[in-house]
């Protein structure tokens, strides 16, 4: 069963040379038993990723309706409606302007002696009474959101609403730190130690969140949880993608991420709804992080990392493990040839190490491309997060709409798997961002409630597609010598966008429709920006800085790969080697250079 193909190839003298990592994959099995095992193992880690990203939304969710608490009324056997009728004034003009505003004021109460009034039989307020700010805290209507989040518990409402967003920003500030710390660990001590450390930190910090009892302790916990974000999943994702043969990469990458992420993030709202306690929610959503403790026994260390750090023997041990599990037999001379190629590559790689991220800005055209990529990525994250956070303004029953919006990840993945390699990165990004923009505008124009929410969900589908194209596109465009640093730079700047994303919803304080209008304008302008980037489909990857600078110069603005692929163009654009999702990582030099190995 195991012998068949490879030895006969050798005898014919037809066996192709083993020049890089991808060449040896067919011998150990490109999509064998071990790869499928890893594919399944991606599930818990993708769940971790989705939960880390979105749990905070539910930890800080506040009911739409709240009003001042008046302790004096408690002894009087009044229903909430009766209490409101007596103690809460109608919302004033400023409050009514807010999206999702309630008819009664959220932050004002009448300043009168209720005991006296009740004794004289008064049950309905007189609008001429003097009002004051809430003095004894707030009551919440828990009909739609059946639990008190930390934001409700600590009363982050009225002039303190921004605290929820500030906590969200702390989370992403944490991811910035985590990206640097765990990126360093991954490069110097290996991918597996980084993966385990990162998940362990996320796990314990999520548990610690339970004990948070103030804004600052909550922020601190979230900041530490945030350090796990991204790396907890990315490291494994890249390992898996590396071990899968190039022709299966697009499929495995899109399927695993698309399906797992869509499922995980669309069930999260229901978990939150069903648990209905933010502390338990924090613990339950941390549970999948614990998988990291058994990870090292199942997950193989990245062979490419071994190679790039000079440990070729260990890399070969790893490959032998795949050989065993996949039930293949590989001739020793194949490993020998591989060892030689690796040693050559290591030598060549040394010469790449003198480049820094600043080299991206030394050539004018490359500098322009880089800046455009950064702006493109920033804007897209703001649009993405903006749509996520805006959902709570659009729909009081946020659980259903959040779940549906998250589910759009699934069609996004399918659309990408089918179209990305036909239509090209450029037009696909343009169309998806334009779709996001158009539906954002339509959402503004449609009546509040269901119709707006549906339009916003379509907009989210658009930005989901664009976000999935994003990193692959950037990695394909930047020249090899600085690709990893370039992608990291874009990634890290992206965290700033995450930090400001949650504040988009406060534009609603200026005018209720403003968040959607801004998101629409932003995605429209980003869509047009994409058209000024070169297409990378079927291109050779640029290697040197000069190639990066000249990349796509010859392309016509109107070139659409699926329509106008003339014979000459086909000749000029040779098929590039699979680097699918090479850039889907916060990457270090070795990480992406090794993807090229
Ligand atoms: C409170 O009011 C409800 C209805 O208004 C009444 O059924 C109930 O008996 C009252 N309870 C007390 C303790 O007065
Ligand atoms: C609470 O919300 C529900 C559903 O929106 C509504 O039916 C109920 O009247 C509200 N209660 C109060 C006290 O406003
Ligand atoms: C309200 O009036 C009652 C009876 O007149 C009085 O005993 C009580 O002290 C007053 N409460 C406040 C807060 O002024």
Please, could you describe this protein's structure?
This protein is mainly alpha-helical. Among the domains are: 76 residues, no CATH class; 243 residues, MFS general substrate transporter like domains (Growth Hormone, Chain: A), CATH 1.20.1250.20. Helix content is 65%, strand content 2%. The protein has 27 helices and 4 strands. The strands form 2 sheets. Strands 1-4 form a two-stranded antiparallel ribbon. Strands 2-3 form a two-stranded antiparallel sheet. The protein is elongated. The relative contact order is 0.12. The structure holds 2-acetamido-2-deoxy-beta-D-glucopyranose (3 copies). The site of one 2-acetamido-2-deoxy-beta-D-glucopyranose has 6 residues, from helix 4.
Write the layout of secondary structure elements.
Layout: H1 5-12, H2 21-28, H3 33-59, E1 66-68, H4 80-87, H5 93-97, E2 108-110, H6 114-119, E3 131-133, E4 138-140, H7 150-153, H8 162-189, H9 191-209, H10 215-228, H11 231-243, H12 246-275, H13 278-286, H14 295-298, H15 303-308, H16 312-325, H17 332-352, H18 364-394, H19 398-407, H20 409-423, H21 425-445, H22 450-477, H23 480-500, H24 514-530, H25 545-550, H26 567-572, H27 589-596
Antiparallel strand pairs: 1-4, 2-3
The chain binds 2-acetamido-2-deoxy-beta-D-glucopyranose (3 copies).
Give a brief outline of the structure.
Residues 109-538 form the Major facilitator superfamily (MFS) profile domain. This protein is an all-alpha fold.
Summed up, the helix count is 27
Provide the residue-averaged pLDDT: 82
What CATH architecture of the domain at 355-597 do you see?
A: Up-down Bundle
Query: How many strand segments?
Result: 4
Instruction: Estimate percent helicity.
Output: 55-70%
Strand content: under 5%
Oligomer, anyone?
A: single chain
Could you give the order of strands across the largest sheet? 1-4
Q: What ranges have pLDDT less than 50 throughout 5 or more consecutive residues?
A: 1-12, 566-597
The chain-level structural class is mainly alpha
| CATH fold group of the domain at 355-597 | Growth Hormone, Chain: A
Rg over CA atoms: 27 Å
């Amino acid at each position: 069963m195991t012998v068949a193909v490879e030895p006969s190839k050798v005898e014919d003298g037809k066996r192709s040379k083993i020049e890089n990592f991808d060449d040896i994959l067919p011998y150990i099995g490109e999509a064998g038993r071990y790869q499928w095992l890893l594919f399944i193992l991606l599930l818990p880690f993708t769940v971790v990723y989705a939960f880390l990203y979105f749990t905070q939304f539910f930890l800080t969710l506040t009911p739409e309706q709240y009003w001042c608490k008046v302790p004096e009324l408690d002894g009087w056997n009044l229903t909430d409606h009766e209490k409101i009728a007596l103690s809460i004034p109608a919302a004033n003009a400023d409050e009514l302007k807010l999206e999702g505003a309630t008819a009664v004021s959220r932050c004002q109460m009448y300043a009168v002696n209720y005991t006296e009034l009740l004794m004289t039989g008064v049950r309905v307020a007189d609008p001429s009474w003097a009002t004051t700010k809430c003095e004894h805290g707030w009551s919440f209507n828990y009909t739609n959101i059946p639990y008190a989040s930390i934001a409700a518990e600590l009363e982050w409402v009225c002039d303190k609403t921004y605290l929820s967003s500030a906590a969200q920003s702390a989370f992403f500030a944490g991811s910035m730190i985590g990206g640097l710390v765990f990126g360093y660990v991954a490069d110097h001590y290996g991918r597996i130690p980084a993966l385990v450390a990162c998940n362990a930190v996320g796990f314990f910090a999520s548990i610690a969140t339970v004990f948070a009892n103030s804004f600052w302790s909550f922020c601190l916990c979230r900041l530490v949880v945030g350090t796990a974000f991204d790396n907890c999943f990315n490291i494994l994702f890249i390992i898996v993608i590396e071990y899968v043969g190039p022709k299966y990469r697009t499929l495995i990458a899109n399927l695993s991420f698309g399906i797992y992420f869509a499922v995980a993030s669309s069930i999260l709202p229901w978990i939150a709804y069903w648990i209905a306690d933010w502390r338990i929610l924090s613990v339950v959503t941390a549970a999948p992080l614990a998988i990291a403790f058994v990870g090292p026994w199942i997950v193989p260390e990245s062979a490419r990392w071994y190679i790039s750090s000079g440990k070729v023997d260990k890399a070969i041990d790893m490959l032998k493990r795949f050989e065993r599990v996949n039930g293949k037999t590989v001739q020793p001379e194949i490993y020998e040839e591989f060892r030689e190629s690796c040693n050559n590559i290591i030598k060549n790689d040394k010469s790449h190490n003198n480049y820094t991220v600043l080299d991206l800005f030394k050539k004018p055209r490359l500098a322009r491309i880089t800046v455009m990529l950064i702006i493109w990525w920033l804007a897209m994250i703001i649009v993405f997060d903006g749509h996520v956070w805006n959902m709570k303004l659009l729909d009081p029953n946020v659980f259903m709409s959040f779940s549906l919006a998250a589910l759009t990840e699934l069609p996004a993945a399918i659309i990408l798997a089918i179209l990305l390699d036909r239509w090209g990165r450029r037009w696909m990004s343009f169309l998806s961002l334009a779709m996001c923009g158009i539906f954002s505008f339509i959402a503004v124009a449609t009546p509040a409630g269901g119709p707006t929410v549906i339009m916003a969900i379509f907009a989210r589908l658009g930005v989901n597609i664009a976000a999935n194209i994003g990193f692959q596109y950037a990695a394909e465009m930047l020249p090899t010598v600085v690709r990893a640093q370039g992608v990291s730079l874009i990634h890290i700047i992206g965290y700033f966008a995450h930090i400001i994303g949650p504040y988009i919803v406060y534009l609603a304080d200026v005018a209720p429709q403003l968040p959607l209008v801004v998101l629409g304008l932003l995605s429209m302008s980003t869509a047009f920006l994409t058209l000024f980037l070169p297409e990378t489909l079927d291109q050779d990857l640029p290697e040197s800085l000069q190639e990066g600078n000249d990349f796509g110069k010859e392309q016509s603005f109107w070139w659409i790969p699926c329509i106008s692929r003339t014979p000459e163009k086909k000749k000029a654009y040779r098929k590039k080697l699979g680097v699918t999702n090479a850039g889907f990582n916060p990457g270090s030099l070795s990480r992406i250079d090794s993807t090229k190995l």
